[in-house]
Amino acid sequence: xxxxxxxxxxxxxxxxxxxxxxxxxxxxxxxxxxxxxxxxxxxxxxxxxxxxxxxxxxxxxxxxxxxxxxxxxxxxxxxxxxxxxxxxxxxxxxxxxxxxxxxxxxxxxxxxxxxxxxxxxxxxxxxxxxxxxxxxxxxxxxxxxxxxxxxxxxxxxxxxxxxxxxxxxxxxxxxx
Length: 176
Hints:
There is one protein chain. With 176 residues, the chain is α+β, with helices and mostly antiparallel strands. The protein folds into two domains: 3-130, 2-Layer Sandwich (Alpha-Beta Plaits), CATH 3.30.70; 132-176. The protein has seven helices and five strands, in the order αβαβααβαββαα. Strands 2-3-1-4-5 form a five-stranded antiparallel sheet. Strand 4 (107-113) and strand 5 form a beta hairpin. The radius of gyration is 27 Å and the shape is elongated. The protein starts with a helix and ends in a 5-residue tail after the last helix.
């Protein structure tokens, strides 16, 4: 790779690092057929992937050293960079791929999701279970739906009580 190609790769990686949700995984030890399958899964889920050289990735990260410095310690092996608009999709792809193939590869290294760093395998389940925007909106709507139903049913029951009182009053004055 010439110096000019390296500079172009660093520039491209710098633009990739401006993504909102970025996952880093180690794919060393996975054969070409499995890597193709993983890439296909990513493509089907609208996740962009890139196999990068660690030295070029570090150089791209160094342009924003304060932002990316937490990830320097985890970048190792054959680094697979995954970017997505939906925050938890790459984590689910990795989990499903590992389950299907009974393997621990790709190995989750770290992620930058919604302006937070997640480093190491102990943080992986957190990312799998993190809710995306659509799931959060759905939860809020369902939470709002129950109280509204309760208010409507309360108003209906009050309505029936008022109607009952009006019927009694319309028959004549009650005798006490």
